[in-house]
Structures are given as structure tokens and as C-alpha cells.
Write a structure and sequence with these properties.
The structure holds three protein chains of three kinds.
Chain A lengths: L10 E4 L13 E5 L9 H5 L5 E4 L2 E4 L9 H5 L5 E5 L2
Antiparallel strand pairs in A: 2-5, 3-4
Chain B lengths: L5 E6 H11 L4 E3 L7 H12 L6 E3 L4 H13 L4 E5 L1 H16 L5 E6 L13 H4 L7 E4 L3 H16 L7 E6 L7 E6 L4 H4 L16 E2 L5 H33 L7 E4 L6 E6 H16 L4 E6 L1 E3 L3 H8 L4 E6 L9 H12 L5 E6 L9 H12 L6 E3 L6
Parallel strand pairs in B: 2-3, 2-4, 4-5, 5-7, 6-7, 11-12, 11-14, 14-15, 15-16
Antiparallel strand pairs in B: 1-8, 6-13, 10-12
Helix pairs in contact in B: 1-2, 1-6, 3-4, 6-8, 9-12
Chain C lengths: L3 H6 L16 H12 L3 E5 L3 H5 L5 E2 L5 E3 L5 H15 L4 E7 L1 H5 L2 H10 L4 E6 L34 H7 L4 E6 L3 H13 L4 E6 L3 H5 L5 H10 L6 E4 L2 E4 L1 H7 L9 H4 L15 H23 L1
Parallel strand pairs in C: 1-3, 1-4, 4-5, 5-7, 6-7
Antiparallel strand pairs in C: 6-8, 8-9
Helix pairs in contact in C: 2-8, 4-6
Classes of the chains: A alpha+beta, B alpha/beta, C alpha/beta.
């Protein structure tokens, strides 16, 4: 009966990392200085890649997917994020 | 609220409206264009006077009409639209969308000439331009077929083995605005047409994303699936027709209708009302001792290759009568029948006759005239009826 | 106004590792929009960058149902879906999410039809003022003087005012927003969610490759656009036009718009207005237009 039904549909399922480990795209990587960080979580909200998450109250970068845009560093109100050149 | 099964005398457009009502379509989106207008007007009346429980979206163009019912069908709701001529041409992009998204919408097309010049009369060119897309396409010859084919179209389109949209063609004014008796099935139609159960739909409980970018290789498989599905549609149509015949006392043969073909030497091949008129011509020709038969293609897509081969392999000449032409090539029926003749190695002469284009009237006398000349070998292979006088 | 800390903890329905450029405003606008709308959302997305951001099938970077549709049909497909949702009795937000190309230009007819009919659709345009997906060509939303790949020496017409067009349709809710203020986006989307009928939000979305600026400046430019009056922040609700944020402060006379040059200078799409020589004629026209447009909006706000 499998030959008698529709087999291929133009449908996709939700997937994290659909374009691969997009962390490989970056040239600069953000580094959070937790001494300065006031846990306002602005970086979590503004990250265009949704790649900053909260763990044990701290914002943490998901380096698998962070594309290194630098928006978090630019928007951090206490300058706690530094964009370090990776390559 | 649902009507009982009964015979009424009404126009082809009303037949569409009754079928949509009896199919319990729930979303109708349409834009007015002559001569489709009274289909939508009647459905609007049904809804507003409480005879039909559905939503009508009075869209601002035909393109939006097809887009809107694509949206509602994707949500899992049986939907409908109707158009004609320029409206169908405007919708063209979205016909691809419905087919490739595997959404079994049903649409009635009042076949009308495209301009310029302005012309509101019957011509098959509008629908013919869309025959490649993957829609199930039928052509009605009378108002009973208009009604029946619409219900059958829903049944076939929504079948899980098919999942492709369907188009029912009825000729401008000849059927749309002509009254004749036909039976409507009322609530019994739902015994033939089950609840729409989509093979996919948009539902937050099970999120799917439809139609983002797919690779060429994957896309080819998607198209192949459509090819296989419309091929399968032939047996789905036959099964549906058989069940319909039993339930409602019809005697549809299948994808084609044959008339006096058993001992025919010559076959007239046509569609729609011209195909039915050809049967009258057959009787007249038989009176003169010419063994002519008629074949009417009911379902043009999937193209009924096997059905036609079975019935054509014993004739010496086929006279195709077409109400449209693929300019620069042949008539579209010949374009689709020709390969069959070639591949099956049928030894047969063919005439491709263009009649009724632009809405010109076609009477059985015209058909008799043409067939007699064809049989005598006096007709060009590609012939525009009457052009010797132009 | 939603607190940033709360916004930070909401579930992400736009998934990371997608195909968007680094610093793409979709990542802020859509992310925030979906946080405001939640899982009971069905998206209708015409051809635009979001079509590509989803990535290549059979996977996609989004976890709500999404129907990719033809360019001009965001509003028309959504209208049909809204009718179906009502028939099914489904409690769901029908979201049409489109770029400015599919909104201001090719999609305008369908929007006007849906707005006039009052179809129950939330239409959000994320506006980077050009046909971004096809390679930075000019659209009806492109501002005067901007470089695009079809206006190499700068666009010679001002941008279309889509907000005003929707206000003229007298729909229940029209708002502008900017990725410079994600919390404002959240609030407006949440407000629009609770309303019925055709609701329209136009989110200014600075685009690094299209506007030519470093990828970390997306939000900064989103704010500067408001502070210079280049983009206005307002809501039209229940027949009343009200300003928000910095725009409101200027309307109340508490602040002034910064010179638009401060905004233009940071984007290379306007570089030819400063180098090799200053184009004062165009710069003054932009500044004049900003003043004139705001005065017109001010007069409407009084009614």
C-alpha cells in the first residue's frame, strides 16, 4: 500500500541549526566579563541568533551558533562584553 | 437546512452552487467575472439566507481568491472558488501553488474567451492554458454533469492517494446560463463525500513548515510524486464514478463517454457541449450510412490514454473537434492524444478541427458537414471551420 | 512595558543556527514577535528574507506552523486562513509576516482588500526599506537618496507611508515600531494580538548588508532612526493617533529630533551624500521632509 499513497510533500519540521553550526561563520567572538555583568539580560533579548541563554542566573553564549555580529557587545550597558578576534 | 434529493430546472451555474452547498464547503472566496457571477451570487444567497453554513470572502481579485482558499484549505477546511477567462489567467500563479502544496481545492471554470477583444462567450482556451500544472480537470456537457462532476471532483481531489486540486469546466452561457433539468442530491451527497481529512495541515499542535527552500534533487522527487499521484487519480476517478453511479442512478462510463463506438469506422473526439452535440451528429451520419461514433472526454487530466486507446484502435479516422488552439502548434486535444496514437502505434488518420472558438455556435449540422468532408478526404489535417470563406 | 528580564526568559520560537546574516534585524523583530504571540500562532510568509532564513528543507528554523506563500499573497492567504480558523473554532493568531517589498508594493492590493473586509489577520511588516532577499533593490519603502542596486546614485522619491494608508482604511490598530526597542515591539504585538480585525505593525529593521553598516549597529541604528524623526513611533487605535517613546517626547516639546545626518552618516547606503562632496540639496530635502511629515502627523494626532 505504500506505493498507493503520497510519498513526498514540501513540508519541513522545526530544527535548531538548520544551517549547520553557524558559529563557524564568525570572525569575532563575544566574551562576557562576569565581574562587570549586572545580569540585566539585555544581551539575551537582543541577540539576533537567540544564542545567549541564561544558566545559573548568568547569560551564557552558545558558541555553536553565535555568528559574532557584536550586537550584544554594543548594547551591553556596562561594557561587559568584548569582541575578541578569533581568526 | 439541507435539501432533499430532487430534480430541479436551473442553470449550470446554479448546478455548481448546489454542488458546493451539498458538498458542505466551508470557505468560498471569489471575484466576479462574467459568466461565473451567478455561481457566487447563488452561494452568497445560500449563506446569507441560512441555507448553507459557510464563510464567503469577497476578495478584491481572482489572484486573491485562489490565495485565500489555499490558506483555508491549508488549515484543513474544504474550500471553493470559481472564475473564468481573464480571472483564471490572473490566478495562474496560484494554481501552481495549490497543486504543488498538495491542497485539494475545487474550482469551477466558466470557459470563456480571453481578449482582446472583449468576448464573453465560450472557448476552452482559458482552462487549456493550465493543463500542465497537475490539476484534475473535467469538462461537463450538461448541467447534471456540472453538478455531479463537482462532487466527484471533491471526492477525487481529497482522496489521500491523490491530494491535488480539481477544476470543473462548464462553457460560458451554453451551460452557465442555460436551464435544464438535473437532480441535486441534497444531504445524501455527504454519504458519497466524507469529511475532509487532509494529508497535511497547519496546526499549532503539530507544527509543520510548508514550502521553504528545497534542493533541486528533493524538488524533483516532489514533482515525481505529483506525477504518480495524478496517474493514480485515474483509478480513483473510476472508483468514485462507480460508487456515484450506484448511489445516485447515473450511468457514467468513466473518464470518457463513448457513443455508438462499437462498430464505428470513424470517431469524433471532443469534449463538453460540443462532445454532446457530436452524438446528435452521429445519429444523423448513421442515417446516411456512415459508421461514425463519438467519444467525449470527461476527464482531461489525468489524460485518459488507456480508455481512448481501447476504443480508438479499430477506427480508420479520428476527427477531433476543439474549442481552442495552441497557436503555433496544434489543438490541445490533438497535442495530448497524438502521443498516445504514436506510442501505441495506432494506424489512424487524424483531422484536427477548430470549431466554436470565440464562442461561435456549433450545431450538429456543422459537425455533420465537417465529418463528411473528413471521411471523403477533403479536409485539411488542421482545419479552422469556415476559414475557406475568410 | 514588558521588563527586559521577563522578555529574556520567554521561550524562543525562532530557532538559532538559521540562515540569517549576522546582526539581522529579523532575529530581533521576529524573535520578539513570537515571544509575544506564543505557540498558538500560524505564520504566513511571502517571498522575503524570512523565506530564506528558515533554511533548507526538510527542516526549518521555526517552531510554529508556517506557510510560505507567493510574494503578493501574504494578506490574501492569511485572510482565507483566518476564515478557516473561525470555522474550526480555533484559538490561534493568524500572523502575516512580510518584508516591505511584499507589503508596500506587490502585496498592497491584498492588504487593502483584507483591511477593508476587516479580516482577522495580524499583519506585521519588518521593513528594511528595500527588496533585500533579491539583492538590495529599491522598493516603495526606500527613503530618498538611498543607494540600492537599482538606484545607484540614490533613490529620487521619498518612501511610501504605509502606516497612513492603513489608517485611511480605519482598521482597529496600526502601529510603527523599531528593532531599536524590542520591549516596545513586544508590547505592541501583545496589544494587537488581543484585538480582532485587521491589525498592522510596521517594524523598522536596519539591515547590515543592505544599509551598509557593521553588523553590531542594528539596534543602535534602530534607535537613532527614531531619535532623528526618520522613523516615527506611534499607534493608531480606536480612531486615535498617539505617539510613543522619543517621538512622543518631541511631540510634547520635551525633546527635539536630532539632525538626520547623525543617522545617515552611519550607513554607507547614504555615503554618496557626503563623499566625494556633500549633497546639501538632498540632505536638506530629507530633513525638510522629516519636518513636514511630522507636522502632518501632529495635526492628525490632534483630531
Amino acid at each position: 500500500m505504500t506505493e498507493d499513497t503520497v510519498k513526498y510533500l514540501p513540508l519541513s519540521k522545526p530544527k535548531i541549526g538548520i544551517s549547520g553550526k553557524t558559529g563557524s561563520w564568525r570572525i569575532f567572538a563575544p566574551e562576557i566579563n562576569y565581574d562587570k555583568c549586572v545580569k540585566c539580560y539585555i544581551c539575551v533579548v537582543v541577540c539576533p541568533e537567540a544564542s545567549i541563554f541564561i544558566e545559573n542566573d548568568r547569560p551564557k553564549i552558545d558558541y555553536n551558533y553565535c555568528k559574532g555580529c557584536g550586537v550584544c557587545a554594543r548594547e551591553c550597558p556596562v561594557n561587559a562584553i568584548n569582541m575578541r578576534r578569533e581568526r | 437546512m439541507m435539501s432533499e434529493r430532487k430534480v430541479i430546472i436551473d442553470t449550470g451555474n446554479s448546478a455548481v452552487a448546489y454542488a458546493v452547498k451539498d458538498a458542505e464547503a466551508k470557505v468560498i472566496a471569489a471575484y466576479p467575472i462574467t459568466p461565473q457571477t451567478t455561481i457566487v451570487e447563488k452561494i452568497a444567497q445560500f449563506i446569507e439566507y441560512g441555507e448553507m453554513d459557510a464563510k464567503m470572502i469577497r476578495v478584491e481579485s481572482e489572484h486573491s481568491a485562489m490565495a485565500a482558499i489555499i490558506g483555508s484549505e491549508a488549515m484543513g477546511v474544504r474550500s471553493f472558488t470559481a472564475t473564468s477567462s481573464h480571472g483564471l489567467a490572473l490566478m495562474h500563479e496560484m494554481l501552481w501553488y495549490a497543486a504543488n502544496a498538495r491542497l485539494p481545492v475545487v474550482m469551477a471554470v466558466a470557459n470563456r474567451t480571453l481578449g482582446p477583444p472583449w468576448n464573453i462567450w465560450a472557448d476552452w482556451g482559458d482552462a487549456m492554458a493550465d493543463r500542465d500544472i497537475g490539476w484534475i480537470i473535467s469538462w461537463a456537457a450538461n448541467n447534471q454533469e456540472v453538478y455531479d462532476f463537482t462532487l466527484i471532483s471533491y471526492r477525487v481531489a481529497e482522496d489521500k492517494r491523490v491530494a491535488l486540486p480539481a477544476m470543473v469546466n462548464l462553457e460560458a452561457f451554453v451551460l452557465t446560463h442555460t436551464s435544464m433539468p438535473f437532480e441535486i442530491c441534497g444531504k445524501e451527497a455527504r454519504e458519497f463525500l466524507p469529511e475532509y481529512d487532509p494529508i497535511w495541515k497547519l496546526d499549532p499542535d503539530d507544527p509543520v513548515i510548508m514550502g521553504n527552500i528545497f534542493s533541486p534533487a528533493d524538488t524533483m522527487k516532489l514533482r515525481w510524486d505529483m506525477w504518480e499521484s495524478i496517474k493514480r487519480a485515474r483509478k480513483v476517478i473510476l472508483g468514485a464514478i462507480q460508487e456515484y453511479n450506484e448511489m445516485f442512478n447515473r450511468d457514467y462510463e468513466g473518464l470518457i463517454k463513448t457513443y455508438r463506438m462499437d462498430d464505428a469506422d470513424y470517431a469524433i473526439v471532443s469534449m463538453g457541449t460540443i462532445g454532446e452535440e457530436a452524438e446528435v451528429a452521429v445519429d444523423a451520419l448513421r442515417e446516411e450510412g456512415l459508421k461514425v461514433g463519438a467519444i467525449r472526454i470527461n476527464f482531461f487530466r489525468p489524460f485518459p490514454r488507456e480508455d481512448l486507446v481501447n476504443v480508438l484502435n479499430s477506427v480508420s479516422r479520428i476527427i477531433i473537434i476543439e474549442r481552442s488552439a495552441s497557436l503555433g502548434a496544434y489543438g490541445q486535444i490533438l497535442q495530448d492524444l497524438g502521443p498516445t496514437i504514436l506510442l501505441e502505434k495506432l494506424q489512424v488518420d487524424v483531422n484536427d478541427v477548430f470549431m466554436g472558438i470565440g464562442g461561435t455556435d456549433v450545431s450538429y449540422e456543422d459537425i455533420v458537414n465537417v465529418v463528411k468532408r473528413a471521411i471523403k478526404g477533403e479536409l485539411k489535417t488542421l482545419y479552422w471551420y469556415g476559414s475557406e470563406n475568410w | 512595558m514588558v521588563a527586559i528580564r521577563d522578555l529574556a526568559k520567554m521561550e524562543d520560537l525562532l530557532l538559532k543556527g538559521n540562515a540569517a546574516c549576522a546582526g539581522c534585524p529579523i532575529g530581533i523583530a521576529l524573535r520578539t514577535t513570537l515571544k509575544a504571540l506564543g505557540k498558538k500562532t500560524i505564520m504566513f510568509v511571502p517571498a522575503c528574507c524570512t523565506s530564506v532564513v528558515q533554511g533548507i528543507g526538510p527542516g526549518a528554523a521555526i517552531s510554529v506552523p508556517l506557510f510560505n506563500t507567493a510574494f503578493e499573497t501574504a494578506a490574501s492567504v492569511a485572510s482565507g486562513a483566518a476564515a478557516a480558523a473561525e470555522i474550526l473554532g480555533k484559538d490561534v493568531t493568524i500572523l502575516a509576516w512580510a518584508g516591505d517589498g511584499g507589503t508596500y508594493d506587490i502585496g498592497l492590493q491584498a492588504i487593502s482588500g483584507a483591511a477593508e473586509r476587516g479580516d482577522n489577520v495580524l499583519y506585521i511588516c519588518y521593513n528594511n526599506q528595500m527588496y533585500s532577499n533579491t539583492g538590495i533593490q529599491r522598493s516603495g519603502a526606500t527613503p530618498l537618496g538611498a543607494w540600492t542596486t537599482t538606484t545607484w546614485t540614490g533613490k529620487t522619491e521619498h518612501m511610501k507611508d504605509m502606516g497612513m494608508i492603513l489608517i485611511a482604511h480605519r482598521v482597529p490598530y496600526v502601529a510603527t515600531a523599531s528593532v531599536g526597542y524590542p520591549d516596545d515591539i513586544y508590547d505592541k504585538v501583545r496589544k494587537a494580538k488581543e484585538k480582532k480585525g485587521f491589525r498592522y505593525i510596521d517594524i523598522l529593521a536596519p539591515c547590515p548588508p543592505g544599509w551598509r553598516f557593521p553588523s553590531d549597529m542594528t539596534i543602535r541604528l534602530g534607535r537613532l532612526a527614531i531619535e532623528t524623526g526618520f522613523w516615527l513611533l506611534y499607534e493608531y487605535e480606536d480612531g486615535e493617533l498617539r505617539f510613543n517613546g522619543y517621538t512622543k517626547l518631541v511631540a510634547e516639546g520635551k525633546k527635539e529630533f536630532k539632525p538626520v545626518e547623525e543617522f545617515l552618516r552611519l550607513q554607507d547606503r547614504f555615503r554618496h551624500l557626503f563623499e566625494p562632496k556633500r549633497r546639501d540639496d538632498i540632505l536638506e530635502e530629507i530633513q525638510r521632509w522629516i519636518k513636514e511629515r511630522f507636522e502632518w502627523y501632529l495635526s492628525l494626532a490632534k483630531i
